[in-house]
Amino acid sequence: MGSCARLLLLWGCSAVAAGLSGVAGMSSRCEKACNPQMGNLALGRKLWADTTCGQNATELYCFYSENTDLTCRQPKCDKCNAAQPHLAHLPAAMADSSFKFPRTWWQSAEDVHREKIQLDLEAEFYFTHLIMVFKSPRPAAMVLDRSQDFGKTWKPYKYFATNCSATFGLEDDVVKKGAICTSRYSSPFPCTGGEVIFRALSPPYDMENPYSAKAQEQLKITNLRVQLLKQQFCPCQRNDLNAKPQHFTHYAIYDFIVKGSCFCNGHADQCVPVDGFRPVKAPGVFHVPKTNHISHRGSLNTVTISPDGSLYASGSKDGQAMLWDLNKGKHLYMLDIGDIIITLCFSPNHYWLCAVMGPSIKIWDLKGKIIVDELKQEDISPSNKAEPPQ
What we know:
Layout: H1 3-10, E1 39-40, E2 47-49, E3 59-63, E4 76-80, E5 106-107, E6 115-134, E7 141-147, E8 155-161, H2 164-168, E9 181-182, E10 195-199, H3 213-219, E11 220-230, E12 252-262, E13 300-305, E14 311-316, E15 320-325, E16 330-336, E17 343-346, E18 352-357, E19 360-365, E20 370-376
Parallel strand pairs: 8-9
Antiparallel strand pairs: 1-12, 2-6, 3-4, 5-12, 6-10, 6-11, 6-12, 7-8, 7-11, 13-14, 14-15, 15-16, 17-18, 18-19, 19-20
Keywords: Disulfide bond, Laminin EGF-like domain, Signal, WD repeat
GO biological process, one term: animal organ morphogenesis
Protein name: Netrin-4
């Protein structure tokens, strides 16, 4: 495997072969089995939550955060009011672009100990993984459920708890591989920015053939639900004698990213809305662009979608990378890469785009539209493992 390919794998990206005869969502002809592009299923759809901060009146809330050495910072306090846009923290904030709006979040009402978040889909979809980024400390106990019959019945995907046996009477997958409960994502640290990650085909659901009927059945959903069952406070609060507990008793989530694609049995390479469906915010819900790339002067080699499903990039033999806003369905701008583009990949953590051209890689900062780094074949030797960009 070449050095460039290794770096892409460290980024969590997979290369798209050059010389594609068709692009997902761009062509209706499929010579073999087709699969639509994956994206964030929550984008453009309504997320439901039981409560919202300030839904009845203005509320005061506070947060702790810690330094890199885990020493505590002073708490920060503010007000929330769901009726005032500049003070509102609505459920929709969990599904907006984490690239464009990294500091928006949903927050529950004050002094709520149990909460529920739910995504209702209008048809069957394939669900591959969930990423949640919390602003508050992660829950001490929560459950991820799915429905395949539009909410009539529910099945648990995974249980999360600081103590699986005491909370749910279940074994912990940290101790027993394949257990349906885990303590991996239930630490109170970090007090803000903690992640919860679930992969639909991870143990106990991993399978040798991810395309088997059994695997497909495991991935199919019509609804996804997260039950937040038990809060835990930031450990910094124990050292603050002036803290009022009620101001910290809430859940808050930056991002709720539901990765998946529409369900089409391999017979189509694009998704279309069902009759009567109206996206909440934007036409980019189905993760396919509405353009035919007429601005590219060479044949299309690669396409990629940002981790939050809001941006789309295409690369061509003409050495140009084109950026598209999937929310608005419009072309943004073009980057002159300078050579034939083999593959493109978005950084999972920054507003960056990686472009591979033969033996070299260019990394672009999309905010400034500038090159932040260029790696060549000789820069990455097999004996020196490349650190993935942050």
